[in-house]
Amino acid sequence: MSINYYFAVYESEKDALQDFGAALVMDTEETMPESEKDALQDCGVVLVMDTEETQPCFTHLRVINYNSLSSCIKQVMEQHQGHNLLSSELYKAQLRKQLSLIRPDLNKIHGPCLSDKGDNMDFASCLKCDKWVSQAQPWISRSRLTWPSPELISKITSCGVLFVPIGNKGSINENLQWRISFSIAEKILIYSFSHTQLLCYALLKILLKEIVEKEKVDGSEKDEDLKGLLCSYFLKTLLFWISEETDTSVWRPDNIIPCFTACLQRLIYCIL
Question: What are the extents of the domains in the chain?
Answer without folding.
Answer: 2-129, 193-272
